[in-house]
Amino acid sequence: YIVAHELEFKKIHNLLTLLKICSAHNPALNQILEDCTLLNSYYIDTRYPVHWPTNHTREVTEQARAAVRRIAGVIKGFLPKSPC
């Protein structure tokens, strides 16, 4: 979304910061805030572990996968249509 709409951004992995950039351009993207918050916490846990290993259950993993699918669906819906 950021690249497609030529928005300025920093090279970071924080989904909440990236969402803030996107939602400033299109406030409708705030609908994925909860999912981004969920996924952002997993990235921080695995990238910067305080207590290793982080034990994610199958249920938690499925919730994360569902969040990814919802985010992808919303973002794809706001991308410009390809002329091809």
C-alpha Rg (nearest Å): 14 Å
Count of helical segments?
A: 3
Beta-strand share of residues: under 5%
Order of helices and strands: HHH
Q: What's the β-strand tally?
A: 0
Give the N-terminus to C-terminus distance in angstroms.
Answer: 18 Å
Query: Helix/strand-derived class?
Result: mainly alpha
Summarize the structure.
It comes from Candidatus Saganbacteria bacterium. The chain has 3 helices and no strands.
Written overview of the protein:
This protein has 84 residues and is mainly alpha-helical. It has one domain. It contains 3 helices and no strands. The longest helix has 20 residues. The chain is globular and about 45 Å long. It holds the Pfam family HEPN. This is HEPN domain-containing protein.
Key features?
globular; 84 residues; mainly alpha; 3 helices; HEPN_dom
Topology:
Blueprint: H1 15-25, H2 33-47, H3 58-77
